[in-house]
Amino acid sequence: MNIKIARFFQERRPATPCLVVDLDVVSENYRTLAGALPDSLIYYAVKANPAPEVLSLLAGLGSSFDTASLPEIRQVLAAGATADRISFGNTIKKQSDIAAAYALGVRLFAFDSIAELEKIAAAAPGSKVFCRILTSGEGADWPLSRKFGCDPEMARDLLLKAASLGVEPYGVSFHVGSQQRDLTQWDAALATVAGLFRELEEKGVTLRMVNLGGGFPTRYRRDVPPTEAYGEAIRDALRAHFGNRLPATIVEPGRGMVGNAGVIESEVVLISRKSANDNRRWVYLDIGKFGGLAETMDEAIQYPIETDAAGPEEAVILAGPTCDSADVLYEKADYHLPVDLRIGDRIRVLAAGAYTTTYASVAFNGFEPLAAYYI
Predict the structure, then answer these.
(1) Nearest to 171 by CA among 152, 193, 149, 189
(2) What is the fold, at CATH topology level, of the domain defined by 24-258?
(3) What is the C-alpha separation between 108 and 12, in angstroms, rounded?
(4) Is 69:106 a contact under the CB 8 Å cutoff?
(5) Cβ(280)–Cβ(313) under 8 Å?
(6) Catalytic positions, please?
(7) What are the domain boundaries of the chain?
């Protein structure tokens, strides 16, 4: 937690649970990624954190935006970006939403099936389309395989079909998985994409763009490579597989743009044991899976946790406050908190700027959505 956020908590003492995001960190993340991939356009993944303060900041810095829905498109436009800086990147869209986005000026659409391609062709004629291919997701803490993308052979056939439907077959996209620490995953995906480009060119279709997706990580409990290392690995892979005929490229950072900019402060509601000889205390917080920490599902994303309590530590199980037995954050992961932690103490969940406010339920068990402050 940086000094700016620590001062905010100390001076304001906001009610918990709440998220505080340092916009200066978001700005620095944008500039670092732009420097690491100077030839790629940044399309911020709005779903990570769609706060107006974040969107307007990034729009002012020159970012483009990857959107998953019509409301997100409207949010981006309200933040000051123009429609030519928006990609409708969800491969699962209502035809009416495609038509509405087209009416707003959006001309870049993702697809991964013939039915989705036909919807785009009908509702957004003349638009640029890119086909998402499957990747393994290996090495990612939050894989994004199976639900999104198609195999490369199908992608080839769909892109050949696109031109005959009155849209422009523009490129190919992939996503190596969220919180990806394996730098070689982009090389493997780009080898497949380059093969597709060559096959399609031989059949008279020239693609022009590769969407490199997201995957850029935030540091949680384990170290991650620096942004510059991702940039170097991606640039090397592009040169290796495309030579001197480099396509236009875009990236879709979400977690890597806002994750480390946010800290959640929470109150300890209860500390208990389940039996007299239980060797681990249960520590219940006023935030859980349904309050914004949905990515603790399967304990996939392991947030660093801090408290002002000091002294010796012991193993704990961390859980949320709701009347749902699934609302356990960490039971298998090795979390320790001080023995002198008490009910009413505050703890801080670090690196929580991404996928927290947008995952918070509206009022499950009557709990209010996660409050957020942008400073």
Answers:
(1) 193
(2) TIM Barrel (3.20.20)
(3) 43
(4) no
(5) no
(6) 323
(7) 24-258, 260-374
